[in-house]
Amino acid sequence: MELQTREFSLIGKVHESLVFGRRVRVLARHLAALIPARARILDIGCGDGMIDRLIMKQRPDVSIEGIDPLVRPSTHIPVRPFDGERIPHSDSSFDAVMFVDVLHHTSNPLLLLREAVRVGRMILIKDHLRNGLLAGTTLRLMDWIGNARHRVVLPYNYLSKSEWEAAFDDLGLRANHMNLSLGLYPPPLSWIFERGLHFVASFDKT
């Protein structure tokens, strides 16, 4: 157990120095560009809310609050606990609902997406595409490095492009923006961990 704790600590430090800070800044920039003016946003599975804080720094006209099954002791935005399935807000109570690397941590992404469609007028998603050689293996490695030390549940439930498209069709969501070239990693890490495995997208309800 002590050896495993030291391994988590070392991996965590390397991840923080090489990846985490850049990832947060890059994702905040991508997402901030997609948010409507003066929007009220719900971030589902927001973690510590650092991405939200950076978004609001770039977009002071918007407000963001979060919900998370595991509320951290210190957060950068107001965060309420929820059960991971039922969003504790009324219908159409937000201009946009946001998921940042959350849906692949659920056993049924469609269930939580359906809830998001209920409470939000627009859906913003950052997640993964399980397409290409060794995609599943690469995504599992990234997920473990980034989340295992936080004791985040890791079901590794990644969807392929066709599975995502079927889910969006089923929920009546129309993509108005889709970006697969995010620049999350510096070279040479990008050659391994980028390669179309990530996307940021925004959706309107049809």
Give the arrangement of secondary structure elements.
Layout: H1 2-32, E1 40-44, H2 50-58, E2 63-68, E3 79-81, E4 96-100, H3 109-119, E5 122-128, H4 135-147, H5 161-171, E6 173-179, H6 189-193, E7 198-205
Parallel strand pairs: 1-2, 1-4, 2-3, 4-5
Antiparallel strand pairs: 5-7, 6-7
Helix pairs in contact: 1-2
Characterization of this structure:
The protein is an alpha/beta fold. It has one domain (2-205): Rossmann fold. The protein is 39% helix and 20% strand. Helix 2 links the parallel strand 1 and strand 2 (63-68). Helix 1 packs parallel to helix 2. Mean pLDDT is 89; it is low at 1-13.
Largest sheet, spatial ordering of strands: 3-2-1-4-5-7-6
Count of separate structural domains: 1
Broad shape: globular
Query: What is the residue-averaged pLDDT?
Result: 89
Low-confidence stretches: 1-13
Oligomer: single chain
Q: Say how many strands there are.
A: 7
User: In the CATH hierarchy, what is the superfamily?
Assistant: Vaccinia Virus protein VP39
Structural Rg: 16 Å
The percent range for strand residues is 15-25%
Q: Tell me the span between the first and last alpha carbons.
A: 51 Å
- Report the top-level CATH class: Alpha Beta
What is the succession of H and E elements? HEHEEEHEHHEHE
What name does the CATH topology carry? Rossmann fold
What structural class results from the helix and strand content? alpha/beta
Q: Which CATH architecture?
A: 3-Layer(aba) Sandwich
Specify the number of helices. Answer: 6
Helix content: 25-40%
